[in-house]
């Protein structure tokens, strides 16, 4: 029997037992669990019939722990049955050791959708993991986090927020839990203890939360030798990206023959929809594979150029850094492998997996790692990242000096 099928059996049994043995209702008021006395013997009998004999699984242990907590736990007011139930499911996903496979209670699921919509209240940090440690993928431009000096690659060691009664280390924290704790109402403050690569001692950043509105795409124009360069900044792949992208591309097209080249900037872009990456890559490629996807069955699908692009011939440079992740790596990798663009900057984040999202009852959600993606040449960048053709590091002590952008301009001017 496959592991996937076994997991399904366990979930079905757990839901069945909750419905039958504990009094379980879904409704507009969430989850309600009513004690109907100990039925462990009956539950064991059901499990013995449902679970194959060769599988050493005793689900009665779950109910034993539940009942012992209800019976003996000192702080009875802490026994929130809804949180206990959600926590049990979160433990199921956490046991896989994959920080991107998570169960999202309704509030967390709502926040995840707000991220893709591009507006929320918080500090303006894109979060991820490096070696299972909470890390800043990138602070958002113009955000409170950026103003407080937070940088891409900073490890977040500790959270402190008096208003939320939070004072805890981040070791083992899930991504949704971290997002929930770091976000908060406009005007409130959170303290982050950060560890920066190359520095011996951690430091603390006090950040006042604000309303964060994140545009997906921006374009400005730079003077070049007797011509113009387009600096096209792509900060995320979200619900509004396609419309904003089209508006930006039209501005570039309207420049006509004055255009000498395009600098596509995906630095600090944490990714998003895979199909969005395919669509945007098709703006620059007339044909070819954009990305390959290997699913949990071992099947490999290829996604190719899906439309006629408007910038097929203009010289192109892609700016990348360690904050470029997921879909932005797909886009950059496709343009590099198809010899359409040179990559300038630093090695990217290295997130090579794909998550499938499912909406569940009462507003909850489930993110499952179902596949890995490969560049057109078959490279898996997970935990390794994409290597630039021209490696250029910006000096964090000189934030106004953008060496990576200047290198891109130099290459295009000499092309």
Write up what this structure looks like.
By secondary structure, this protein is an alpha+beta fold. It has 3 domains: 3-79, no CATH class; 119-213, Roll (Pdz3 Domain), CATH 2.30.42; 217-413, 2-enoyl-CoA Hydratase, Chain A, domain 1 (Alpha-Beta Complex), CATH 3.90.226. 30% of the residues lie in helices and 29% in strands. The protein has 11 helices and 21 strands. The chain has helices at 3-21, 40-50, 60-72, 81-94, 106-117, 144-147, 175-182, 241-253, 274-281, 327-337, 403-413, and strands at residues 24-27, 30-33, 102-104, 119-122, 125-130, 133-139, 155-161, 166-169, 189-195, 203-208, 210-213, 217-224, 227-234, 259-265, 289-295, 300-304, 316-320, 342-345, 353-359, 365-374, 390-391. A 6-stranded mixed sheet has the order 12-13-14-17-18-21, with helices on both faces. Strands 3, 15, 16, 19 and 20 form a 5-stranded antiparallel sheet that branches. Strands 8-7-9-10 form a 4-stranded antiparallel sheet, with no helix packed on it. Helix 9 (274-281) packs parallel to helix 10 (327-337). The longest helix has 19 residues, at 3-21. The relative contact order is 0.10. Residues 1-40 have low confidence and may be disordered.
């Amino acid at each position: 029997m496959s592991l996937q099928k076994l997991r399904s059996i366990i979930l079905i049994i757990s839901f069945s037992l909750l419905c039958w043995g504990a009094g379980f209702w879904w409704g507009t008021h969430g989850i309600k669990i009513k004690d109907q006395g100990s039925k462990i013997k009956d539950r064991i009998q059901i499990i013995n019939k449902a679970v194959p004999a060769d599988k050493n699984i005793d689900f009665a242990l779950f109910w034993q722990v539940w009942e012992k907590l209800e019976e003996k736990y000192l702080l009875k007011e802490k026994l929130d049955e809804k949180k206990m139930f959600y926590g049990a499911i979160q433990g199921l996903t956490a046991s896989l050791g994959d920080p991107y496979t998570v169960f999202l209670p309704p509030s967390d699921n709502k926040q995840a959708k707000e991220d893709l919509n591009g507006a929320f209240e918080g500090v303006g940090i894109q979060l991820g993991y490096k070696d299972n440690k909470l890390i800043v993928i990138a602070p958002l431009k113009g955000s409170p986090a950026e103003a407080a000096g937070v940088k891409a690659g900073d490890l977040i060691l500790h959270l402190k927020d008096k208003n939320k009664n939070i004072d805890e280390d981040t070791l083992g924290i899930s991504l949704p839990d971290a997002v929930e704790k770091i976000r908060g109402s406009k005007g409130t403050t959170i303290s982050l203890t950060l560890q920066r690569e190359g520095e011996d001692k951690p430091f603390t950043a006090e950040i006042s939360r604000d309303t964060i509105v994140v545009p997906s795409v921006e374009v400005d124009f730079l003077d070049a030798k007797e011509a113009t360069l387009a600096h096209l900044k792509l900060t995320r792949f979200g619900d509004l990206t396609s419309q904003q992208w089209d508006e930006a591309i039209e501005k570039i097209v309207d420049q006509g023959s004055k255009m000498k080249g395009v600098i596509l900037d995906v630095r600090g872009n944490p990714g998003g929809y895979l199909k969005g990456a395919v669509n945007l890559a098709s703006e620059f490629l007339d044909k070819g594979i954009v990305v390959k996807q290997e699913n949990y069955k071992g099947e490999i699908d290829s996604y190719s150029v899906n439309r006629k692009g408007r910038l097929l011939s203009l010289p192109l440079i892609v700016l990348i850094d360690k904050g470029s992740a997921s879909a932005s790596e797909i886009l950059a990798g496709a343009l590099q492998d198809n010899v359409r663009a040179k990559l300038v900057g630093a090695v990217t984040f290295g997130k090579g997996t794909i998550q499938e999202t499912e909406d569940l009852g009462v507003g909850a959600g489930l993110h499952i790692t179902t596949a890995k993606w490969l560049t057109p040449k078959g490279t898996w960048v997970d935990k390794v990242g994409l290597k630039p053709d021209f490696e250029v590091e910006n000096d964090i002590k000189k934030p106004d000096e953008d060496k990576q952008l200047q290198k891109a301009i130099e290459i295009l001017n000499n092309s």
